[in-house]
Predict the 3D structure of the following.
Amino acid sequence: MSPALDKTVNIEALHGKELIAALLEAYPKQVAVSSSFGAEAAVLLSLVAEVDPRIPVLTVDTGCLFEETRAYRELLIRHLGLTDVRILTPDASQIAFRDPGNELWESDPDACCHLRKLEPMNWATKAFKVLIDGRKRFHGDSRAKMKTVEQWGSILKAAPLAGFDEAEIERAFIQRNLPRHPLSARGYRSIGCEPCTSPVGLGEPVRSGRWAGKAKTECGLHKSPWF
Ligand code: SF4
């Protein structure tokens, strides 16, 4: 655990807004949030905005997002009053060199995620010591047993909603009057890039619409180490 946190509170016992506030106090100007502006993103971002709407929010536009996600991103920024949302994009020359036909998502999705997501995020996070994200244990797979706070190399990863279940997420949407992602009503429960995201049926796992039919379950942004 980071020395900065050892001197303050038992950070592992915190969650939600309390965890965000404690991290901000322990690491002033060194905390960022990672968000996809997907189906559940509004819950974490609303907590962040209540603690401090100036906290930098890093989001990757891979070039393959749904237009609905881009529109929702702008809606949430306005609705929550976020003042420092940074839209990261892959290096255009690298795209031209490594994926000129825009087909890498099909032939080698791990390489595609590395190029379009991990590389931009890796550059952007060098300026920070803490990265907050919206992972939850109820999403299953590698997330089922994750800790709320974990040190990943030089960065502390924190998931303030790790212990939230589906009902708590739904309750937060209602109680906070949060706008929904436009694709939620069409069965999309976890939303990433358009070629790799499908709607899921009733009772199916939340993330089963991501890379459906492939062994892949994570883009790599939430797997340690990144590089
Ligand atoms: S989710 Fe699909 S399109 Fe997006 S970066 Fe990964 S493989 Fe490429």
Observations:
- The mean pLDDT is 92.
- The chain has one domain: 3-209.
- The domain at 3-209 is CATH 3.40.50.620 (Rossmann fold).
- The longest strand covers residues 31-34.
